[in-house]
Amino acid sequence: MWTRALLKANAKTVLRRSYGRVFLACLVTAVLTGGLNINYNFGSTSADPAVDFFYTVGSALPGGDVAALILGTAAVMLGILAAVLLFILGLLVALLFVPAVQVGEARYLLRNRGEDPGFGTLFSAFGNGQYWNVVGVMFWMNLRVFLWSLLLLIPGIIKSYQYRFVPYLLAENPALDAARALEISTAMTDGEKLNIWVLDLSFFGWHLLGTLLFGLGGLFVAPYTHATEAELYSALRAKAIASGAVTEAELAGPSLYD
């Protein structure tokens, strides 16, 4: 039976010998997945600098306002095109890149419990022969959470807790299909979701402290919370194996990263 105190104590033990590299791994993951949110305000600027620039240039050309209107319209159209292209690029990154990095981070955290994983472990999902399966399972998981969230906020939150360990399961066995990965995670969190929520809530003070220094403080808290989650997964993994919900061989997987 796991307790919050036990998980956190284990996480601290792991971090005493590996805080630096776990910090770096969490930082790189945050940067690559968009989890790094630092806000700066350097003063007000024009909302449409490109339009202002082209309007100024156009006003100086023969035709005055007409040239300015044409160039200003062109600037708006270019801006819209750039926004569409950036949206498509962001969508592709969110669907094809971010999930693989998240699974790689989970594998890094699991391996770090007992060894010194190479930094390349963060990107191991891209070269394991099961990349498209990993991406597909993560997409299906996120889609289900999103659809449940459309009903009401609470069902979406419950589903997010229910499927919380899918990245860790894929980290151990990237060949798991979506149905089985969701089934195992559901079994692992059955009767534990409230306890997991309380565990998350216990980090509130740390997260509040992490908002200091323009949000940079959160970077130093992340290794602690992530290492604790890896301990939680390991505890619930053992429970699931003991109950027969999954086997050790199934989690070892037919296709390994290394």
UniProtKB/TrEMBL annotation:
InterPro entries: DUF975. It holds the Pfam family DUF975. The keyword Ligase does not apply. PANTHER family: MEMBRANE PROTEIN (PTHR40076:SF1), MEMBRANE PROTEIN-RELATED (PTHR40076). Keywords: Membrane, Transmembrane, Transmembrane helix. The chain crosses the membrane at residues 21-41, 53-71, 78-101, 131-154, 203-224. The keyword DNA damage does not apply. This is DUF975 family protein. It comes from Candidatus Faecalibacterium faecipullorum. It comes from the Bacteria.
